[in-house]
Design brief:
Layout (H helix, E strand, L loop, with lengths): L1 E2 L1 E4 L3 E3 L15 E3 H20 L6 E7 L24 E6 L7 E7 L1 H22 L2 E3 H8 L12 H13 E5 L11 E5 L6 H8 L13 E4 L1 H10 L4 E6 L1 E3 L6 E4 L13 E6 L12 E5 L13 H16 L11 E6 L5 E3 H14 L5 E4 L14 H12 L3 E5 L23 E6 L23 E4 L7 E5 L2 E5 L6 H14 L4 H12 L9 H4 L9 H4 E2 L3 E10 L3 E8 L6 E2 L1 E9 L14 E11 L2 E4 L15 H8 L5 E5 L9 E2 L5 E10 L9 E11 L6 H10 L3 E4 L2 H11 L8
Parallel strand pairs: 2-26, 15-17, 15-19, 16-17, 19-20, 20-21, 21-22
Antiparallel strand pairs: 1-25, 2-36, 3-27, 4-8, 5-7, 5-9, 6-7, 10-11, 10-12, 13-18, 14-24, 23-24, 26-35, 27-34, 28-33, 29-32, 29-35, 30-31, 30-34
Helix pairs in contact: 1-2, 2-4, 7-10, 8-9, 10-11
């Protein structure tokens, strides 16, 4: 087996040289004056509507597009002024329910902006009739841009005229969006962001909120009667709504043994955080767990409230003792356990507040396990409040959450979408498989927001007659569920981060990369994610002798973060390898943006250097300087645009051929940073990349790779497990000074 290699070197940073092209329609397309008149009519009606409303001073205008709109295809000439871009006023985004989804993007603008747009449309309508006989085409605009047609309008700038024409091509209509909300219990409501805080808006409507029912400027907790009042007086303000009372996915405990297990006293083992139901401090491993009940003292607890949480912590501390076939080689872990739920229901709002407090007060913990999940399915148009809080915490802090993919009832045959908080994008979400590597009978499905791959991975959680053994307050129990797959992954993540000293970005990429193979994935990724994680930690940090696996990490500071200096071994002037790679990063996310949830995109290109460019292994041409056009749907489908996990690979097959070597066998990697919003959230974002090279003739070429990397200035660290454990133990020793 070959050790994992860590390459340390310099990533260069470069700003973007490209500038937005002149506005134009797609080739062969045209815009008629009737389209502009219809949009103007929409805006006139919206102005009348909003002029009568006095709850907010501005207007919420929803733009209905005719496709999934890339940032470059979104409105630029309308709902904007010289100093205000339309992009800066976006407060929500969702997809239509059509078979082929289309964007609906909501803006909050002033009445003056609507007036300006009506006036611009009026001028464009007149110009279109006077100069172009009521219709303008791609070819005509191309000639205007190249100055083959003299065109210098007086009442509107040429660029603004063309922007409005392009806007009209992509927009179906302007309207007020009102969602049909039917919730019986207390609800977590998110209103669109306006220039007035949610609490002030509620006061105008006649709802008085205590601070305990306010999450932030736009998210509040309402009782059923208050929600009814809001729907009566201002339904257009509601952006998202979910029930606050969440039923936990059910877990059955089959008590199966009373063997006595012993455990030594803890020493300096890493600590994993657990947020779950209660923990019983009388179990055999209780010395390894520091427990805190986060519930109010007046909430009574039953014995059943201790089963789930105790079982989860038993796997993290000492899982292999009860499940020897699952011995991962990671050892034991200490646990800091926080009880946040009791019974089979909990308040999401209360738990959100608790999680914020818990993470803030326990900065030393890097890996957190959360095996609580909702019976309710996630919404296709927005992230759950629970997931959004977890994503924000992971963007702001150097932590990672391992989350159970939630279960459906064991008797239910119909497929069911995952429940909150398994829609957290930055977290590592774990589904279950049985010991024959088939999706568990209780597995629920992704994706999230019709796009993001969730679950991320799968692991063994017990199913059929092969159940997982756990410790409960009343003895050993046999269980099944994603709740009991996630803790095994938390163990592996803690091992990689706390013991081997890898960053969370690299550790997450390693885990996901280990789940992938060299063949095309057969099982539905919406059930198992990127694949099934091997049991042994050695199979994650070591690879077969015909493979070279190395990790890179860095920080994106500008548009292009790159290194063109990776010396992949050569044989007979060719590279005898197939390649796969995984990129992970933790972006800032905006729940208010609906389906357009992640603010930053890192686009990866990896491949041979030929002249001044990379020949990507996945033919990724999105940012190529040659003239390529990529539809937004294709960029998302084929290159995972806007996903914070990118996995690319060449498939192993008969007849895999070595690749021609260019420029002395040098390969390169480039990350292009793109922003969804005007603010630069991607500056300073950390990333981790895992690259695996598989020699097609089965030859071990790792020594050549290490030597060539050293010659090219890379610092090459072999991740030697035994050596890293020794270093960790020495670093964690308590030193006593004689007085």
């Amino acid at each position: 087996m070959n050790n994992l290699l860590q390459l340390k070197g310099t990533f260069e940073q470069a700003s973007s040289n490209s500038r937005p092209g002149a506005p134009n329609l797609p080739a062969g397309k045209s815009v008629k004056v009737s389209q502009l008149k219809q949009l103007q009519k929409n805006l006139v009606e919206l102005k009348k509507f909003w002029s009568k409303e006095n709850i907010v001073s501005g207007a919420l205008v929803s733009v209905f597009y005719n496709k999934v709109a890339a940032k470059s295809n979104r409105i630029q000439g309308l709902l904007s002024k010289s100093d205000i871009t339309a992009n800066s006023s976006i407060v929500g985004a969702r997809f239509t329910k059509d078979e082929s989804p289309k964007h609906i993007i909501t803006h909050y603008v002033s009445i003056e902006i609507i007036d300006e747009s009506i006036e611009r449309l009026d001028r464009c309508i007149n110009l279109l009739n006077e100069k172009f006989d009521g219709t303008i085409t791609h070819d005509v605009i191309k000639k205007i841009n190249s100055k083959q047609i003299a065109f210098a309008p007086v009442k509107i700038a040429k660029t603004n005229f063309l922007k409005v024409i392009v806007d009209a091509f992509y927009i179906e209509k302007f309207d007020v969006l009102v969602d049909d909300i039917d919730l019986k219990d207390e609800a977590i409501i998110t209103i669109y962001k306006t220039d007035v805080k949610a609490t002030k808006i509620m006061e105008k409507i006649g709802i008085n909120l205590q601070f305990t029912r306010v999450m932030d400027d736009t998210t509040i907790l309402l009782r059923p009667d208050e929600l009814t009042l809001l729907k009566q007086k201002a339904p257009y303000l509601i952006s998202m709504a979910v029930s606050d009372i969440t039923q936990l996915t059910k877990v059955d405990f089959d008590f199966c043994g009373d063997d006595v297990i012993t455990i030594p006293a803890p020493k300096n083992e890493p600590v994993i955080g657990v947020i779950d139901t209660m923990f019983d401090e009388n179990v055999y491993f209780s010395e390894w767990v520091e427990f805190k009940n986060m519930l109010p003292e007046d909430i009574s607890l039953s014995p059943n409230d201790y089963n789930h949480g105790t079982a989860v912590s038993s796997i993290i501390v000492d899982g292999p003792a009860s499940n020897p076939q699952m011995d991962d080689g990671c050892g034991r872990f200490r646990v800091r356990h926080f009880g946040v739920a009791a019974g089979d229901k909990f308040s999401s709002f209360t738990i959100l507040r608790s999680i914020n407090e818990i993470i803030t007060s326990n900065k030393d913990i890097k890996v957190w396990n959360l095996s609580l999940g909702s019976k309710l399915e996630i919404n296709k148009n927005f992230i759950s409040p629970e997931a959004a809080v977890l994503d924000r915490i992971q963007y702001e802090n150097d932590v990672i959450f391992i989350i159970a993919g939630t279960n459906k009832p064991f008797t239910e045959k119909q497929s069911k979408a995952i429940g909150a908080p398994a829609d957290s994008i930055n977290s590592l979400v774990v589904n279950s498989v049985d010991f024959d590597n088939r999706p568990a009978s209780y597995s629920r499905k992704g994706p999230v927001l019709s796009f993001f791959t969730k679950p991320d991975i799968s692991y063994y959680g017990g199913d059929g007659t092969n159940l997982m053994r756990v410790c409960t307050p009343t003895g050993e129990a046999c269980v099944r569920g994603t709740s009991f797959a996630a803790p095994w992954i938390a163990r592996k993540m803690s091992y990689l981060i706390n013991i081997l000293g890898l960053s969370r970005e690299v550790a997450k990429a390693l885990i996901i990369n280990a789940a992938t193979g060299w063949n095309k994935q057969i099982v539905d990724s919406s059930l198992i994610g990127h694949g099934i994680i091997p049991i042994k930690i050695d199979d994650i940090v070591r690879c077969p002798e015909d493979e070279i696996q190395f990790v890179l990490s860095g920080i994106s500071e500008k548009y292009d973060t790159y290194n063109y200096n990776i010396p992949v071994p050569i044989s007979k002037e060719k590279h005898p390898f197939i390649v796969k790679a995984t990129l992970c990063y933790f972006p800032c996310c905006s729940r208010s943006q609906g389906v357009d949830y992640t603010n930053t995109e890192l686009e990866i290109q990896l491949g041979r250097i030929n002249g001044n460019e990379i020949k990507p292994i996945d033919n990724n041409y999105q940012s190529a300087e040659t003239e390529h056009f990529t539809w937004e749907e294709d960029a998302r489908k084929y290159f995972r645009k806007w996903d914070n996990v990118k996995h690319i690979r060449e498939v192993a097959k008969k007849g895999n051929r070595a690749k021609k070597s260019y420029d002395k066998g040098i390969w390169g990697v480039s990350l292009k940073t793109k922003e969804r919003l005007d603010k630069k959230y991607g500056v300073g974002i950390k990333f981790g990349i895992v690259v695996t090279l598989k020699e097609i003739d089965g030859i071990n070429r790792i020594d050549d790779f290490i030597k060539n990397c050293s010659l090219r200035g890379w610092l090459v660290n072999k991740i030697d497990v035994e050596n890293r454990i020794e270093i960790y133990n020495v670093a964690e020793e308590e030193i006593t000074f004689d007085g």
